[in-house]
Amino acid sequence: MAQQKLKVSFKLFVLDIIGAMLAGFGLLGVVGEGGQVHPWLADPLHGAILLATGLGLMAWFMIDLLKRIRAQRQSRTNQPANERK
Length: 85
Known about the structure:
The protein is mainly alpha-helical and 85 residues long. It has helices at residues 10-31, 44-77. The radius of gyration is 19 Å and the shape is rod-shaped.
């Protein structure tokens, strides 16, 4: 049985990478070390906002990816037996 490649939206992939960076900077701000990176991150509230935004973007990517996996599995199981080979 040949495996089909899962097509992922490039825009969502880029947003996932940006979300990871935002979450990293946000975590620095929440922990209290963000002031060394940028004065705006010295406030833990700003760090929490960045952390929540970054985690939201990464969750959006994962939910979209899981939807695509589910759709691909369902399309594979809905094929007649003679077309699966």
